[in-house]
Amino acid sequence: xxxxxxxxxxxxEPCFEAVRIVLAxxxxxxxPAYIQGLSGAAFRVGxxxxxxxxxxxxxxxxxxxxxxxxxxxxVSLAGEGADPQQDVPQVVERVKGEVRAGRSVLVWHAFxxxxxxxxxxxxxxxxxxxxxxxxxxxxxxxWRAPERRMAExxxxxxxxxxxxxxxxxxxxxxxxxxxxxxxxxxxHCHAPRDEALDNAGDAEAPWKFxxxxxxxxxxxxxxxxxxxxxxxxxxxxxxGIYRTTHRMAATFLREIAPRYPEGAGHFRRAAGLFxxxxxxxxxxxxxxxxxxxxxxxxxxxKGARMAETLQLxxxxxxAAVKALxxxxxxxxxxxxxxxxxxxxxxxxxx
Length: 350
Prior knowledge:
Radius of gyration: 20 Å
Number of helices: 12
Oligomer: single chain
Helix content: 40-55%
Low-confidence stretches: 344-350
Number of strands: 8
Structural class: alpha+beta
Strand order of the largest sheet: 2-7-3-4-5-6
Largest sheet: 6 strands, antiparallel
């Protein structure tokens, strides 16, 4: 059984594009860029480590559902007393029940690794789920995987099971959440540097989870001082995500700019700079890393080019956020002041 007219991933992003796809099947018309912008994913850069795009968020997946006015139920395989292998058949049946009722479902680790995927069908004979994951963004091909695969997430992280989207009981306060997303983008960009990075000298910076420009600075620094460094899973995964999400930042800003005429010019300038940043990240991923499987041996020339190209991306990112600040200052200057004064990782949801 496969549901018709379920959209595929338009963005390589692990936590929020799945929400858009599930809601689009119910008639919502939010664009991929709008969801990336509202959720904050369009403006994040953290780590660098493989967990950053799924763990270092401006809000959670369920927070986004709540902002959009939807009820939800978490059918988890994690938590005290849970036994994923024993409990998975019940979750599988819940998912199938939703699909039989004509509703696609968010399932953790259904097709990808430790991401929210979209299950829009199943094959009883083969005991498989059918649907979409972020790894084939831009392509409409459905994936198949064993229906119990979600329990295997415990090898990487908690097995979150399924997220069942319920009724729509509220309405989006668009202005509030749009401006809150811009405020958080500024706060995140200006997260403070750490002494370990400032004092690293000619050595690679010690591991620390960094945010915004500080994250970029450490990323650049480590390739600059060690051009023989070979990209690891964190480099590749983050590049694969951020090069698409930050391109969505440009589209999001152009989409909302007409609603804020006093700051529209600055927002459009920021959009162009985010595109240039995404172009630089594309070059890092496609030409230097050669995707997920290339650049497997030390190559100092490539390492030097990686440092140079990441530095360009960092400059464009910083300039984009500066233009965004100028635009938001024309709309709501208190938000810009608050963004610079707060250093918390999380922000209260509107």
